[in-house]
Amino acid sequence: MSNVGIVIVSHSPLVAEGTADMVRQMVGDEVPLAWCGGNGHGGLGTNVEAIMGAIERAWSDAGVAILVDLGGAETNSEMAVEMIGEPRAQKIIVCNAPIVEGAVMAATEASGGASLKEVVATAHELSPS
Amino acid sequence: MRALDLSRLITAAADTIVDHAEELTALDQAIGDGDHGLNMKRGFEALRSDANVFAAKPLPDALKAIGTKLVMTVGGASGPLFGTLFIALGKEISADPDNANLTAAFGKAIEAVAARGKSQVGQKTMLDVLQPVRDALAGEKTAAEIADIADAAAKATVPMKALRGRASFLGDRSIGHMDAGARSTALLVRTLAQIIGDKA
What we know:
The complex is a heterodimer.
Chain A: E1 5-10, H1 13-27, E2 33-37, H2 48-57, E3 64-68, H3 71-84, E4 92-94, H4 99-111, H5 116-124
Helix pairs in contact in A: 1-4, 2-3, 4-5
Chain B: H1 3-19, H2 21-31, H3 36-49, H4 51-55, H5 59-74, H6 78-92, H7 99-117, H8 127-138, H9 143-155, H10 180-199
């Protein structure tokens, strides 16, 4: 798919899945979408391997925007991008935006064929400065 | 560093973390999300089971592989932070480092951890132990002195107010508790210093 992909990373698998569900219902199937959440052991948390897997599932040559909740989700997402490595890493951006609103707005922008830069800018507009 | 030494270092580091897992979790329950001990235990047990694999590699490659393993197995924010420390150390260190090379590489590794955590010294994190240890290395302190400096530095995080990580959400309520990441860092420093000190 040529539209920018969206990855949702939350400490809670329920939040991640629920956010992805909102994106699907409000935006449709026009964007590659993946989510991950939880520590893989039944608890809250995020882990690098799961995030790398989600990036693979949502991969688009137009790039991938990642929406995260709390600090560890951001740190782990940045680590995942680094471990995926170049040349793909430069097409993946971790957004500084609220996870639910950011995911829906970024996906809406992406569904119209916007560039990664435009998708990320749309998500960032939601971030309190 | 000979292969046998590295295997022994990894095993000893893992034993220390496993022995202190409950203490680390208790520290993290006070001001964090309460999983630091369990997360670190999982990561270091994974290191221990592959200790011979790491030890068979040249030191820079071994450190990078150790860091990558920690990233993948620790989980939580500690995985990328401790993982970055070892990966960056592996990138900067020589195969047979002298003190100057070790000190320089350690300094670069601390910068990488600070960048990864968007943190700096004084914010009640592992950096508050790593930086004094680097300074002690530069000052050519003995292994025993370095271990004591690391312990004192971890204790010094007690009166600090957390400015990064989950503990920072608590604001002033984070004061009066030792940072769990600072404690695990000091534990690792003491273990490594003891073994390297024995050899010297």
